[in-house]
Automatic annotation (TrEMBL):
<feature type="transmembrane region" description="Helical">
    <location>
        <begin position="207"/>
        <end position="224"/>
    </location>
</feature>
<keyword id="KW-0406">Ion transport</keyword>
<feature type="transmembrane region" description="Helical">
    <location>
        <begin position="245"/>
        <end position="263"/>
    </location>
</feature>
<dbReference type="Pfam" id="PF20501">
    <property type="entry name" value="MbhE"/>
</dbReference>
<dbReference type="GO" id="GO:0005886">
    <property type="term" value="C:plasma membrane"/>
</dbReference>
<keyword id="KW-0813">Transport</keyword>
<dbReference type="GO" id="GO:0006811">
    <property type="term" value="P:monoatomic ion transport"/>
</dbReference>
<keyword id="KW-0472">Membrane</keyword>
<feature type="transmembrane region" description="Helical">
    <location>
        <begin position="33"/>
        <end position="55"/>
    </location>
</feature>
<feature type="transmembrane region" description="Helical">
    <location>
        <begin position="275"/>
        <end position="295"/>
    </location>
</feature>
<feature type="transmembrane region" description="Helical">
    <location>
        <begin position="747"/>
        <end position="765"/>
    </location>
</feature>
<dbReference type="InterPro" id="IPR046806">
    <property type="entry name" value="MrpA_C/MbhE"/>
</dbReference>
<feature type="transmembrane region" description="Helical">
    <location>
        <begin position="688"/>
        <end position="706"/>
    </location>
</feature>
<dbReference type="InterPro" id="IPR001516">
    <property type="entry name" value="Proton_antipo_N"/>
</dbReference>
<feature type="region of interest" description="Disordered">
    <location>
        <begin position="775"/>
        <end position="797"/>
    </location>
</feature>
<feature type="transmembrane region" description="Helical">
    <location>
        <begin position="135"/>
        <end position="154"/>
    </location>
</feature>
<dbReference type="InterPro" id="IPR025383">
    <property type="entry name" value="MrpA_C/MbhD"/>
</dbReference>
Amino acid sequence: MAGVAGLTFLALCLPFFGALIAPVFVRRLGHHAAWLLALLPGLAFLHFAEFLPNIAAGQVVQGGFDWVPSLSLRFSWLLDGLSLTFALLITGIGTLIVLYTGGYLKGHTDLGRFFSFIFLFMGSMLGLVVSDSFLTLFVFWELTSITSFLLIGFDHRREASRRAALQALVVTGGGGLLLLAGLLLIWQVTGLGSMSELLRSGDTLRASPFYLAALILVLGGAFTKSAQFPFHFWLPNAMEAPTPVSAYLHSATMVKAGVYLLMRLNPVMGGTAAWQTILPVFGAATLLVGTLLAIRQTDLKLKLAYTTVSSLGLLVLLTGFGTDYAVEAAVLYLVAHSLFKGALFMVAGIVDHETGTRDITRLGGLRSAMPLTFAAALIAAISMGGLPPAFGFLAKEEIYAALAQTSPAAIALTVIAVAGNALMFAIAFAVALRPFIGPLTETPRHPHEAPPLLWLGPALLALLGIASALLSGPWHAYVSSPMASAVGGKELHISASLAPHIGLPLALSLATVLIGIFVYWKLDRARFFMSVMLRHLGPGPDRGFDGFISGLVRLSHALSRILQPGRLEIYVAVSFLCLAAMLLIPLVIHGELPAMPAWPNLQWHEATIFLIAVIGLAAVIRARDRLTAIISLGIQGFAVAVIFLLFGAPDLSFTQFVVETLSVVILAMVMTRLRLSPSDRRPPLKMIAHAALAIACGAGFALLLLKATQAPFDLTLTAFFNHYSKLIAHGDNVVNVIIVDFRGTDTLGEIAVVAMTGLAILALIRIRAGGDRKLATNDPDREEKPDLEVRMEAERS
């Protein structure tokens, strides 16, 4: 097992290794490097495929190693039917995307950088779906947001790309923070920090009074990542990325992360009224919004992007519906969507690459010039439209079998599913037929068939969509059923085949096809109707995001002007105000104010020292200039040093004498180089406020020290240092050993602070001295001095 765990860890690291070597390979081999780089995700795919028999037999593969054992943090992975299917999709489609990239970006100056980003993205998503511990899940979750930001904004010279990348990062990154809070809450409620332990915990989480709060936080992360309404707007804007990114993003990676999380948590968070209400409602709204907005578009990628939004809504709807049939339908549709959507996006990229446009109204007659591309597009569209003999047909039949119930909610969801699927049918064939049939139209580039690096990916994915349906028995045994069992939390066996469900599901399928054909026939009119309707509805969430960001920037500027006005006086006052609050508020709120001690019986010489300290304080307050205040402040420090000496702390007294002497001397040296004129021009009210603040800080320290000294003295540390100072540090002076050995890093930090302070003082002196010499040089009335005298004066400075 140790060898298998090592190979699995190596497979997880292969994409990150590819990110390191990709620029070197591209520099040497150009776009042909794609053939070698594709071996890395291909090898990872083969490794994960070896687990199919074991997972199909009901086993779960776990592994990992301790990261921070004291906090029970592990870098661990979990492979069951759900995570293994995602891993195969990520690595398998990722292999084809790497090859496709080599052809699509052939000759691009930043091809090596793009390969690095795509491999980082692949590794992040792969780590996310196999993560067992909450910590690694969240790390990879946020890493997918960061790497998608790099990919979406790859063409960073274009403002639209930068805006789309920032929008995706803000929306998904903000959702990631909600997810972090949700995972921490689940960890706190259950005491479990890994998915495998949580899945075995039964109803522990559902029975907790914090279940609803945890659910809302988790849904916030999942809905933003999987572009659920009203967070759907970032996904179509992400089409500013190159087509390889779009194809990978929509088929197997980031947008499926939220769906993966919901499926993963279904056994422990599903089955409640909240789960079965929130997910279907938002999923249904997303399904309708995505398809209606897709009808309006003329750009091939945007049409496909909005249908991805609707497909994600359908997956969320099915995951939350709560029946075994719904779970099976969600599993089948997720796999089918990955295959046909990856193929169609690659087809859209090929059309754009070979003709110079993606506008569906400017395309036509490409069938003779691009026969292989047309065949791949048509097969993928058949699957997306839910027609036999494609895998999408199995998924659509299972969807209607799951939703065909008599309750009002089920009827409403069924109507929405039929409408959404019919619109997706029309859009699928609009993408697959409109550019290829009819008379050949003039395009910016002369159309011709794409090279193998481009058409290989969509052809394989389209054919796999047919083969998986024709071989549905073995496919379900090794892929669909284990995945459904993991999502449902119990053993499920999928038996869907090309034989339709006789009855209502078949009738719903026929209605879907007929409505889809009608919409396809009236597509131009439907597009016009949607444009008019959206124009009357006004700006949507996309414009709202711009307003939110603009308001956030204005708010930050306003707060900066308040909190950072550029005046040192305000910064110091706020710092001392916070210090006084931290000292006094806990003592008052928790009733920890110390009892006032009896007045000490002081000897005359002790009282004299205290009197000198009070006189020094009065001198500081009454000082007319800075130099007098600094020297008067020294009286305070020396008086405290004498008090230490009188009360039996000679080493502390000596340290205080040295520090106080150096402080006074150094500050006095600085002040002699600065203006010493009176500078305290504060009005009386401000002086009173500052005095109150100073008294509050002093009182806070005094009360805290009194409280500490009134508590029973704990000799644990004393005994520890007395015992180990000689044994470990080989020193008899316990105080010296503590400072030099036990607190060695602390002492080093103090020395560093003193050194930096000295350097800053030296810089101030040199700046002041340089300014004086410059002023003296420019003074026409200044009496000339011999060069030697000038040099001696400079050395003294």
